[in-house]
């Protein structure tokens, strides 16, 4: 008996491959009836895997190191009803000066970790924290000694709770002729529609954690849009139409 699922709706090839990899872990748990933990998944992947687990009656628990974490792992067929996050993932920390999120991610990838091995990253004024799978925690602690041009001293966070990243937004309104992705991107970063189209076709835009290379894709309200080198935006809603029948939209940019 095979698991029942359909992931044809997934547009991003990398995300689809990641989901298939995670499905193989669900299958292992399903056939062996043993506990199987996963790697880190983004919110879109989490939603897909959760639906597949429900359809196939597989018990599944998602774990993270704070209530708002984007990236989580799952444990299928957990041995105990009381799961301790510390048994699967760990929060590490260090003091920092001029280190940013991409610097931390880049340093971890340069150590040989894969993106799926790394959870959320918190960057505060003086402290940086990040989450890794337990299989990598000691390796990272003893081998990550420099990020960018700064020496760092990595340590485990005793409570294993990742600080909540404060999110500030810049609120905006604008007009677009349609809700196509190229129109939305054009409005967000003040770029011509033709250049926005090229940007999308170069796979530089994500919609709800999937790379979308189709400029004509219609974007739903409340979608999260990430544009490489430009940041993250939330297309909140359509608030009306102009006399020329253009859409009047509200959106936010992450600071």
TrEMBL record:
Q: Which GO terms describe its molecular function?
A: RNA binding
SUPFAM superfamilies registered for this protein in UniProt: Alpha-L RNA-binding motif
All copies of the RNA-binding S4 domain together span 179-239
Q: Which PROSITE patterns match?
A: S4
Q: What keywords are annotated for this sequence in UniProt?
A: RNA-binding
Residues annotated as signal peptide: none
The record's section on InterPro entries has: Nucleotide-bd_a/b_plait_sf, RqcP2_RBD, S4_RNA-bd, S4_RNA-bd_sf
Name of the protein in question: S4 domain protein
């Amino acid at each position: 008996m095979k698991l029942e699922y359909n992931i044809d709706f997934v547009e991003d090839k990398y995300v689809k491959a990641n989901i298939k990899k995670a499905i193989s872990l669900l299958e292992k748990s399903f056939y062996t009836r043993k506990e199987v933990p996963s790697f880190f998944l983004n919110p879109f992947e989490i939603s897909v895997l959760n639906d597949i687990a429900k359809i196939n009656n597989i018990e599944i628990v998602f774990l993270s190191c704070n209530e708002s974490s984007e990236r989580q792992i799952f444990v299928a067929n957990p041995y105990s009803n009381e799961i301790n996050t510390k048994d699967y993932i760990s929060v590490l920390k260090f003091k920092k000066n001029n280190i940013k999120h991409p610097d931390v991610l880049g340093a971890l990838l340069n150590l040989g970790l894969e993106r799926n091995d790394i959870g959320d990253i918190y960057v505060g004024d003086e402290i940086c924290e990040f989450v890794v799978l337990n299989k990598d925690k000691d390796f990272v602690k003893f081998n990550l000694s420099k990020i960018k041009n700064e020496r760092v001293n990595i340590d485990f966070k005793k409570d294993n709770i990742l600080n909540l990243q404060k999110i500030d937004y810049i609120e905006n309104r604008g007009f677009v002729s349609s809700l196509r992705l190229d129109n939305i991107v054009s409005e967000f970063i003040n770029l011509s529609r033709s250049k926005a189209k090229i940007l999308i076709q170069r796979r530089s835009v994500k919609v709800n954690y999937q790379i979308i290379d189709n400029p004509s894709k219609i974007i739903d309200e409340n979608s999260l849009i990430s544009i490489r080198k430009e940041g993250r935006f939330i297309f909140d809603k359509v608030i009306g139409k102009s006399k020329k029948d253009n859409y009047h939209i509200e959106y936010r940019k992450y600071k």
